[in-house]
TrEMBL record, chain A:
It is an enzyme of class 1 (oxidoreductase). The keyword Oxidoreductase applies. This is L-aspartate oxidase. Pathway: Cofactor biosynthesis; NAD(+) biosynthesis; iminoaspartate from L-aspartate (oxidase route): step 1/1. Its cofactor is FAD. Residues 87-471 form the FAD-dependent oxidoreductase 2 FAD-binding domain. GO terms for cellular component: chloroplast.
UniProtKB/TrEMBL annotation, chain B:
Belongs to the SDHAF4 family. GO terms for cellular component: mitochondrion. It holds the Pfam family DUF1674. It comes from the Eukaryota. It comes from Carex littledalei. Residues 45-70, 89-102 have a biased composition (Basic and acidic residues). This is Succinate dehydrogenase assembly factor 4, mitochondrial.
Length: 645, 102
């Protein structure tokens, strides 16, 4: 289990300080500054390795061999194609991963591994826009101020300055790459203004900005002969080693979910851009791929994790349980009901038809979003109910149908007419502000490992993300990690003898299909139980008692699951998609609980009844260091080390 | 209806309170900057805008359409943007009622 550090902590020191196993928060940031993470020179390996040059396009099973742009070298690929060598490996195909790949591919070969279809990422669903200072009357200082205020003053100021300053250039580059954003008749970009911004600065493509950016980047990636895209490759664990200088990352093991084979990707540099972890909660806007794989892998690889308690929820997602007709299939990602419904006169009721918002805020339904979210959460927990009701039916029918046709159509599919009845709603998890701690160049405390996008905690968002800043952060940090990665790559050699250093994970070939099916089924049930625990005990309104209860229940659930799978013959070094995702979900859930327990104040997205106010002395990031204690659970140890336990 | 979501909130002036409802109320999220809230500039003419936009829909297709038949918003000059009310009029990004960003 991870230890939290109090007192003066130096990330660069060889020995980590382990105080009592309590829940502490880093109290002095000057020793732990985002910008002070420096790369330590990577020791040279003896032989020169070779880059694999097989293009394995995810849309077809055929493979074609290309020679690289650099000099011809002999292939060191093994006979069964089970190990591949690249200069750079990128985990994740969202905006951060793709943007980075397009730059580093000018200097070496790149593999992008992604667990589903390449376009399936949180980026795809970010339909609002990208924020950047692009108007002459706007200013970087204004964008910075808005970001820091939204982040409840927990942001790292230098990170905010860097992102707000470099944002405009990153947006212009996207346009140069072919992303098409809305403009005015004069040809200038049309800039919208979302809540929290004091100026118009949101660049967008109608209502599908994320999809448009993803399309443009994927198109460029497809045309780049130095980038090899491996779809349906699930990243299992990072390949790491430790020497007197600390931890190094040498690549990643991946599981091809189509061929059910394990592929080892050896690389000089690894970028982790695997996105969010919304699926630790039952209701989330994130697509099914967002199971916190990156944070979990990084934690197992001894990377430092930060600010996991700050989970952004939207207050009003459509609650399927309240619909007259239950959807046949569980919804993959939540349908959020816009604030405009409340803005246009929608009223919130509990299931006893009591209007509860006036109890929490004089502005009632028009209170700020986080107050509405907390109020709904409080009502649900106090009353033991599954949803509240949002009623707009008292407004003219024509206005409802013309303003909210999407909601009307979606509800009508399940037998609800919103012009006559109230809409059942429940808060949904949307974005993780925390993640793998990154310096200003995307570097982590593991040499050769960089992070960008939602998986990273760069210090930009602080305790709460400002609207449209997430795509911006991904673009800026993906770009900033490029030169340091190239420098690192040029100093690194790959040693094929290293291959035997890590045991290879294996698919469950020795188990009967029926056994694997049973294990997968039970794993899915356990996932629902974990999500339920997280929602009940680690929701929007928290308390020390409930967080401790969550800690206990999650531990119990994890032990129960491990016992079930191992009793049926699953070995610790076996891989499967359901099982590996479950490991990662457990790991992320524990990190969120530990972080929440350690923050003895309420700030931004983290609200706790036991410490309901801001405390200036606690205005610091939450840091989780890896522990030197023996690993107790399957999810806390890298798979390739399992056999050594 | 005037949208009050971005009214000025000052965290420092929040008094202590006992009940959870009071605590939730007082721990507000985002204090607004000193510039006027965005919705103030949109909320007053929102009704008028709807009339204008419904008028636009009734007008012959030549008006409000660019050279290639792309929608042009007469009020903002935005080309190819969403039709109907401004998606960010209440702070979040909505598309026909569904919120896609906030």
């Amino acid at each position: 289990m991870a230890s939290l550090l109090n007192g003066c902590a130096n990330l660069q020191s060889r020995s980590f300080l382990y105080l009592e196993k309590g829940h502490l928060q880093a109290s002095r940031v000057h020793g732990i500054s985002f910008k002070k993470l420096t790369e330590i020179e990577i020791s040279r390996f003896s032989s020169i390795s070779r880059l694999s040059c097989t293009k394995n396009h995810n849309f077809s099973q055929s493979t074609r061999i290309y020679s690289t742009r650099t000099a011809t070298r002999a292939s060191l690929q093994d006979k069964e194609n089970a190990t591949k060598y690249f200069d750079f490996v990128v985990i994740g195909s969202g905006v951060a991963g793709l943007r980075y790949a397009l730059e580093v591919s000018k200097h070496g070969s790149v593999a992008i591994i992604t667990k589903a279809e390449p376009y399936e990422s949180n980026t795809q669903y970010a339909q609002g826009g990208v924020s950047a200072v692009l108007c002459p009357t706007d200013s970087v200082e204004s964008h910075m101020q808005d970001t820091i205020v939204a982040g409840a003053y927990l942001c790292d100021e230098e990170t905010v300055r860097v992102v707000c300053t470099e944002g405009p250039d990153r947006v212009k580059e996207l346009i140069a790459m072919g992303a098409s954003f809305d403009h005015g008749e004069d040809g200038r970009l049309h800039l919208a203004r979302e809540g929290g911004h004091s100026h118009n600065r949101i660049v967008h493509a109608a209502d599908m900005t994320g999809r448009e950016i993803e399309r443009a980047l994927l198109h460029a990636v497809d045309n780049d002969p130095n980038i090899f895209l491996f779809g349906h490759h699930f990243a299992i664990d990072l390949l790491t080693s430790q020497d007197k200088n600390g931890m190094h990352c040498h690549g990643v093991d991946a599981f091809n979910t189509e061929t059910r084979k394990v592929i080892r990707f050896m690389s000089k540099v690894t970028l982790l851009a695997s996105g969010g972890a919304g699926h630790i909660y039952p209701m989330t806007t994130n697509p099914p791929v967002a199971t916190g794989d990156g944070v979990a892998m990084a934690h197992r690889a001894q990377a430092v994790i930060s600010n996991m308690e700050f989970v952004q929820f939207h207050p009003t997602a459509l609650a399927d349980e309240g619909l007259p007709l239950t959807p046949a299939k569980r919804r993959d990602n939540a349908f959020l009901i816009t604030e405009a419904v409340r803005g246009d006169g929608g009223i919130l009721y509990n299931q006893s038809k009591q209007r509860f918002m006036p109890l929490y805020d004089e502005r009632a339904e028009l209170a700020p979003r986080d107050i509405v979210a907390r109020s709904i959460d409080d009502q649900l927990k106090k009353r033991g109910e599954k949803y509240v009701l949002l009623n707009i039916s008292h407004k003219p029918r024509e206005k409802i149908l013309s303003h909210f046709p999407n909601i009307a159509a979606e509800c009508l599919k399940f037998g609800l007419d919103i012009t006559h009845e109230a809409i059942p709603v429940i808060p949904a998890a949307h974005y993780m502000c925390g993640g793998v701690r990154a310096g200003l160049e995307g570097q982590t405390n593991v040499r050769g490992l960089y992070v960008a996008g939602e998986v990273a905690c760069t210090g930009l968002h602080g305790a709460n993300r400002l609207a449209s800043n997430s795509l911006l952060e991904a673009l800026v940090f993906a770009r900033r990690a490029v030169q340091p990665s190239i420098n690192c790559m040029e100093k690194t050699s790959l040693n094929p003898n290293f291959l035997t250093r890590w045991a290879r994970p294996v698919p469950p070939l020795t188990l009967k299909d029926s056994t694997v099916d049973k294990i997968d089924k039970r794993t899915r049930e356990i996932r629902l139980e974990l999500q339920s625990v997280m929602w009940e005990y680690v929701g929007i309104v928290r308390s020390t008692n409930r967080l401790k209860m969550a800690e206990w229940k999650i531990g119990d659930l994890e032990r129960e699951w491990e016992e079930y799978v191992f009793r049926r013959g699953w070995k610790p070094n076996m891989v499967g998609l359901e099982a590996c995702e479950m490991r990662n979900l457990f790991c992320c859930a524990r990190l969120v609980v530990e972080s929440a327990l350690s923050r003895h104040e309420s700030r931004g997205l983290h609200f706790t009844e036991d410490f309901p106010y801001l405390e200036e002395s606690k205005r610091k990031p939450t840091i989780i260091f890896p522990a030197a204690l023996p690993k107790l659970t399957w999810s806390s140890q890298q798979l390739h080390k399992q056999l050594q336990c | 209806m005037a949208n009050k979501l971005c009214r000025l909130r000052n965290l420092d002036s929040v008094p202590f309170s006992v009940s959870i409802s009071q605590r939730i109320r007082h721990l507000s999220g985002i204090p607004t900057p000193s510039t006027p809230p965005p919705e103030a500039s949109r909320s007053a003419p929102s009704e008028e805008k709807e009339k204008v936009e419904s008028k636009q829909r009734e007008e012959p297709s030549g008006d409000g359409e660019g050279e290639k038949g792309v929608h042009v918003n007469k009020l903002t000059g935005e080309v190819g943007g969403p039709r109907g009310p401004e998606p960010t009029r209440y702070g979040d990004w909505e598309q026909k009622g569904r919120c896609s960003d906030f």
